[in-house]
Amino acid sequence: MFKISLAEWSLHRMLFGGQLENLEFPAFAKREFDIDCVEYVNQFFKDKAEDTAYLTELRNRCHDNGVRSRLIMCDGEGDLGDPDAAARTKAVENHYKWVEAAKFLGCETIRVNARSAGSYDQQMELAVDGLRRLSQFGAQHGINVIVENHGGLSSNGKWLSSVIRKVGLPNCGTLPDFGNFQISPGEWYDRYKGVREMMPYAKGVSAKSYEFDADGNEIRTNFSQMIKIVLDAGYHSYIGIEYEGDDPDEVEGTRKTQRLLERIRGELA
Known about the structure:
two-stranded antiparallel ribbon, 17% strand, single chain, alpha/beta
């Protein structure tokens, strides 16, 4: 029905705090959660994209633990929809090393952001330009380029799905996230509508969780409703756990999200 992967951001406090290192992440995912597919965040090995020795060690640790590398979530490399043409080109080229690192690690995909500025239509054209150029480079390496709803107009499902449609390349798609639908302070897009609009282009799904009730249900998102939207779109690949709450701690929050996904999968079987 669907498989479960683990997004590294679920453990971001442990990683930023030094209790866990990026190289240890694949083994930790397998040991603690029996999850054998991981999604990296480039912030945790930002200076290692072109470090072949480091990437080889990471790849070997995945192999030794029977873990698959699925994607790299890329931040901090510039705005792919920057209104300044030179800055936009620089942002596109800054992502090339992550495409190559993803290929080296055996990933299928990099996740990028589609930040821009200007009117609704202006931002669409700018994002289309940056994403198309990066996706063309990705295609040369067999790597997908996917956009997450991650604030601004990217959290507008209609806008983002229109951007991907205009890019018009088979390796350019979306990463619907259950929780990231704040467009601006006080302005929210309907999460269920947004995921439904993004799913035709989805090459990944992020099960964002924050807090749980006594029955183990996520309080902010109806996971059963959301999973039904995902499956109704014909998607049966990996759904990535992305716990972002404060209580419980990261390991237990990840475990609760995993249990919830497994329970829903069992109920729908």
